[in-house]
TrEMBL record:
Family per record: Belongs to the archaeal-type DHQ synthase family.
Lineage, broadest ranks: Archaea, Methanobacteriati, Methanobacteriota, Stenosarchaea group, Methanomicrobia
Record-level Gene Ontology MF annotations: 3-dehydroquinate synthase activity; dehydroquinate synthase activity; NAD binding
Keyword Nucleotide-binding: no
TM ranges: none
Keyword terms, alphabetized: Amino-acid biosynthesis, Aromatic amino acid biosynthesis, NAD, Oxidoreductase
Stretch forming the signal peptide: none
Name used for this protein in its record: 3-dehydroquinate synthase
Gene name for this UniProt entry: aroB'
Residue ranges occupied by any 3-dehydroquinate synthase N-terminal domain in the UniProt entry: 4-193
InterPro entries assigned to the protein according to its UniProt record, in alphabetical order: DHQS, DHQS/DOIS_N, DHQS_C
Catalyzed reaction equations: 2-amino-2,3,7-trideoxy-D-lyxo-hept-6-ulosonate + NAD(+) + H2O = 3-dehydroquinate + NH4(+) + NADH + H(+)
Length: 380
């Protein structure tokens, strides 16, 4: 799943201005709000969100303490010749010793500040870098230098376009962005970019249906999400982890029932569903879990389970040939349950015939507790 993060900086202007930024950030699903220490409780009263605060003598209540503003990080105090003797580094270490989450805040004014940022990255949980005249090269250097460190690198940005650039730098990009703006529309646009950043397109292949057979009664799982899906979207489900069928959402109108664009009638309780880089059993999903929504192009986005319905229904077995490998899925036998053809059109399982071509996803790798492993596993 997407692990990119977005923080909103809301420490300037009147409280009404700051409050508008904070509430818009919360509505947009940001991961944290960065404020002055005096505003921590005010923000927590507005909603359940992580609050980061610039370090002062009063830091109670903040989830993350940000070190560097008004110090060496932003140039208020001169950099020492020995970064290890830095007051900001010392402060960060002391806060960490108290069990607190700490972020370093560094304005990259020149190469010395880039080096200082790397030193802060060695001791902090998060590193926030603010660019001045030059942004991409320092980011590239820090991404490369800190990639094996236990720190999340964040780039200070003022627009959604700058956020997109930060996420695309050196392919991997930064782990997150700190958005500094009073333009509420930019908060929403940046949140949309963050939602899709770093998510790879899955390889989707075509398999040929070799068998369609009613197999009697069994328990099947409906996954009702907190998200609306559109034509072409669904979830990857299969009886084998290395061969998963694109099961279409119930976003299509039919003569039988009204559309339910939040739902995927996904299959039998034993089946695997692809969730990010892992698989899970359909039967273990519950409200609040994340799921992966996929379309016929392999584009992914994250959904949230609102409800799971397990009910006894008539079932149908679908087998397909994928480059000589037989893969299988068991679904409810009903007109509203659909797969996706090679032309990216939904097709009801009741209309499937031998020879039809449908969209699937395959990985030539085993799974252990849902995780990829290099192991030979035979599933029939």
């Amino acid at each position: 799943m997407n692990d990119k993060i977005i923080w909103i900086k809301a420490d300037e202007g009147s409280w009404d201005e700051r409050k508008a930024v904070v509430t818009t950030g919360m509505e947009s699903g940001v991961d944290a709000i960065l404020v002055d220490a005096a505003d921590v409780e005010k923000v927590k009263e507005l909603g359940n969100v992580k609050v980061a605060a610039f370090a002062t003598n009063q830091i109670e209540g903040a989830d993350i303490i940000v070190v560097g503003k008004g110090g060496e990080g932003d140039g208020t105090k001169p950099l020492p010749p020995d970064y290890g003797g830095s007051l900001d580094v010392t402060t960060a270490l002391r806060l960490k010793e108290r069990g607190l989450k700490v972020a370093g805040y560094v304005v990259i004014q020149n190469k010395d500040y880039e080096n200082f940022a790397a030193e802060m990255g060695n001791v902090c949980d998060y590193l926030i870098t603010i660019g001045t005249d030059w942004q991409v090269i320092p980011l590239e250097n820090l991404i490369a230098g800190l990639q094996k460190k236990d720190v999340r690198l964040m780039s200070g940005v003022k627009t959604s376009e700058e956020a997109k650039l930060a996420f695309e730098t050196m392919e991997h990009g930064t782990d997150g962005v700190l958005l500094d703006t009073k333009d509420l529309s930019q908060i929403k646009k940046t949140a949309e970019i963050v939602e899709n950043a770093g998510i790879q397109t899955l390889p989707i292949q075509t398999a040929v249906v070799t068998r369609v057979e009613s197999i009697g009664m069994g328990d099947r799982v409906c996954v009702d999400t907190c998200n609306l899906m559109v034509r072409g979207e669904g979830m990857l489900v299969g009886s084998q982890a290395n061969g998963m069928f694109l099961v279409h959402s119930e976003s299509e109108e039919s003569p039988y029932v009204a559309s339910r664009p939040f739902r995927v009638n996904a299959g039998a309780v034993h089946a695997y569903i692809k969730v990010g880089e892992k698989t899970r059993y359909l039967s273990e999903l519950k409200a609040g879990d994340e799921v992966t929504i996929v379309d016929g192009e392999g584009k992914q986005r994250t959904g949230v389970v609102g409800r799971v319905k397990i009910e006894r229904r008539p079932l149908i077995l679908v087998e397909a040939d994928l480059n000589g490998k037989i893969i299988k899925n068991i679904l409810q036998n009903a007109e509203t349950i659909k797969l996706v053809t090679k032309d990216k059109e939904p097709i009801a399982v009741t209309d499937l015939k031998v020879g039809d071509e449908i969209l699937v996803h395959s990985e030539d790798i085993g799974r252990h507790f849902g995780m990829k492993i290099e192991e030979t596993i035979i599933e029939k």
